[in-house]
Design goal:
This protein is an alpha/beta fold. The protein has 2 domains: 10-225, Rossmann fold (3-Layer(aba) Sandwich); 230-329, Alpha-Beta Plaits (2-Layer Sandwich). 31% of the residues lie in helices and 28% in strands. The protein contains 10 helices and 15 strands. The radius of gyration is 22 Å and the shape is globular.
Length: 330
């Protein structure tokens, strides 16, 4: 499903869901979400935001205090067995596959999920080939790196995919090449008819991969939409960043630069395209006074939205060198 299209029907619907582990403290605080057929939906937020707790309730490992969860209209709180048929799941933690080869682990899950033996074998070989894992096909899992174990776990969730495929931090420890191959396979899952629920704190990957997303913080949904709609922000579609000299105070920002966030020596804000020239002139004046080290202007990113609505705790995982914005820089 292309980002921004109207959702026609919901495969997963969560309504006013609450869950507390400590009396008086809600880990999930009246969360409502709806996943459309054939989309990749992201749950984005810092560690401890309540993402994994939400997933535990979707797959029946925890029961909510209140609210409802339905998959294709079926109440999975009342019928937890249904969710095990409808969902396949890659956990954030490493799966216990010692004693098995990559092929054995993947085929075992495929057969447990009711797949035809011949089709499971064919699909297993296809996944191993597409992810360039063939040399590990018959090697024991004890020899695998963390990244290779993560790839095997992805294959286990994908060999006989559920109506919903839930991926919890699927690319942790995986090298950049195979990350790219993995995202291609995620799109293949959608083409096969699955809806994908992606749980992550990696802002860059979320922006590239998802059709829609919800940002969760302190158990609440604080923002939701397509990446483009979240970045639009009423016409403030440009990102302004200035890096101050080590001992310089944060200056008074021009009115044209809005929604500013301070992260160390970096000051990040949003502005309209029509205000770029005046913002650059202001930044140059700071450089001439020895108050600023460098500045840049480029298209707004999901990082800016994340920092604005969360703005505390874990820094979003954004490798600066991987960001490929068309920048106007000093």
């Amino acid at each position: 499903m292309a980002a921004g299209l109207e959702i026609k029907g919901s495969v997963l619907k969560i309504d006013n869901l609450c869950k507390s582990y400590v009396k008086g403290k809600l880990v999930n605080d009246y969360i409502s979400l709806s996943l459309g057929y054939g989309e990749i939906f992201g749950l984005l937020g810092p560690n401890g935001a309540g993402k994994t707790t939400l997933v535990s309730q979707i797959i029946g490992l925890a029961k909510p205090d209140s609210g409802s969860i339905t998959i294709e209209g079926v109440d999975i709180i009342a019928k937890p067995g249904y969710t095990r048929q409808a969902c396949s799941f890659q956990a954030q933690t490493q799966v216990p596959i010692n004693g098995l080869t990559a092929m054995q682990a993947i085929e075992l899950v495929g057969r447990v999920r009711g797949g035809n033996t011949q089709k499971v074998r064919s699909r297993t070989l296809e996944l191993l080939h597409n992810l360039e894992m063939e040399e590990w096909t018959k090697k024991s899992a004890e020899t695998f790196s963390g990244g290779m174990r993560r790839l095997v776990a992805f294959c286990m969730a994908s060999v006989v995919p559920g109506r919903i495929v839930i991926l919890d931090e699927p690319t942790n420890d995986i090298d950049p090449l195979r990350r790219r191959l993995l995202w291609q396979e995620v799109r293949t899952l959608v083409a096969m008819g699955s809806t994908v629920l992606l749980i992550t704190h990696n802002v860059l990957e979320a922006e590239r991969a998802v059709d829609r997303l919800a940002i969760i913080d302190k158990g609440k949904v604080v923002s939701m939409g397509t990446p483009a709609s979240l970045k639009g922000n009423g016409g403030l579609n440009m990102r302004f960043e200035i890096t101050l000299e080590p001992r310089a105070d944060v200056p008074i920002m021009p009115e044209s630069i809005q929604n500013t966030t301070v992260t160390g020596r970096r000051v990040i804000g949003r502005l309209r395209e029509s205000d770029i020239a005046s913002a650059i002139q202001w930044a140059r004046s700071l450089k001439e006074k020895g108050l600023a080290e460098e500045y840049s202007v480029g298209p707004a990113s999901l990082e800016d939205v994340y920092l604005k609505v969360v703005g505390h705790g874990d820094s979003p995982e954004i490798p600066d060198k991987e960001v490929n914005h068309d920048r106007i820089a000093a």
